[in-house]
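Practice problem: predict the structure.
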Amino acid sequence: MSEETPNQSIEPKAAAGALAMPDYGAYAGAGSTNLPKSGRINYLSIVQSNSKALKRNHEKYNPNAAIGSFLLGKEVIDGEKGVYFIGIEKQHVLVEMTKTDGTGEKVGEHDPHGPVAKAARAKYGPDKYKWKSEKGNFLIDSIRLYCVLFDTEEDIKNLNPRCSAILDFQKTKMAAWETYTAPLNCIKDGDPRPPLFAIMGHISTAMESRKGHDYYNYRIRFVGGDFLKSLVLPTNPKWKEWAEECMKVSAGVNSGALQGETTDTDEDGEDIPF
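Answer:
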């Protein structure tokens, strides 16, 4: 991440374990409401230079799409302006792909701690970027964050969401995931952790360069400027109803009742060839 990245909002002393959390009671550590409990929701994907949304006459062509913008289904969201979000539940998978340049086919998904992962680790070592399946296909470590989006900072503070979405963290996007979750690792041992659905965030896009390629990546910052200020407190009058609805969403993700509209954002051509 560059020095201009707004993600670095935790004081250095936090690394020593100095964060003290409010008491979230039974919701500690759990991953207008009317949140979805079942069905399929869209990924919030980034339009890259090789995206099918930019190719005229392609079935996925979107005349409003621009490089660096977000796509949520057919809706285009300004990537520079970004959008507010609260995560609810994460899903960690290994996606098996024939290619990783945006043209590959998805073969399947695997438990990141299951036999396929163990075999890859034994053969290729701990660097997951080198992992392949027994068939020679690529294994892509992916964390999907089921979340809800908000139009404004006022909306997110009032827990007034506009819609649901999935953020898919893989490859270069893993750095954004690590920034988003780093403060949770700064909580003192034995202290309760806040649930994901208590953390108010903002996500946008910014250009990066690597190995001669320019591409856009996630940028995440905490609402209010740092992690502690971003927390929805248990004293919020909507907290109990919000938490109960989010727990139902979490159950829907874990049961498979709630899934992504597609299981592979590479299908939209947003993958980068490294």
